[in-house]
Amino acid sequence: MKANRTKHLWDLAFIGGSAGATFFQSIALGVFLQGIPVTDGHYAGDAFGWLTPFTLLTGLGLVVTYALLGCCWLVAKTEGDLQRRLHRVVWPLTIVLLGFIALVSLWTPLQDSNIAQRWFHDGLFYRLLPVPFLVAVCTFFMHRAVRARHHNTPFVLALLLVLLGYLGLLVSLWPYAIPSSMTLWEAAAPCASQTFTLVGAAVILPIIIAYTTMGYWVFLGKVRHDDQHHYHY
Question: Which one of 27, 169, 200, 231 is most buried, counting C-beta atoms within 10 A?
């Protein structure tokens, strides 16, 4: 009974915690994109240098991104009235996400002259032109999938949209570990440390893949209101 009375409070706490973690995760990404002031190898900014309009934009953008991914995942996992209501949310979330992608893409070269140089003067702009074209293609098929009430296609297309967004950022930042300050090679650990990490990853990564695959297999299929436990062994 006590759990029932506080159920909505726990729901709100879970929603707030998830949204907050997502928001500040992307705040960190925004700080990385706008550049970290470094002087003589030391941080040269102030305590609130991370809080800017650009980082707030990236923070909200990732919240919308995860909302779209979660919505599409639930479309694939549910059915009936809940699925129909989720289908109605997918397309508006897609449009909002596209708006954030456009704003971040325009703002990034404007707030960093080195990225602007890389985009418009080093010949990268023309090589990046397929990215917005592919985003438009994904958006077109997302609209069709939502109208046709497809179950799994929206989630796949949402993943592609996120992948294309991060691809653009990766190309813009390469080869810097800290934009305009330190390259990946300058920030790299010693060779012995990298070898030790590689050996550990070679052992642990297959284990992670195995239990993650097992988890997906166990919970494969739709979640139905009248189901108690459906496991696939």
Answer: 27
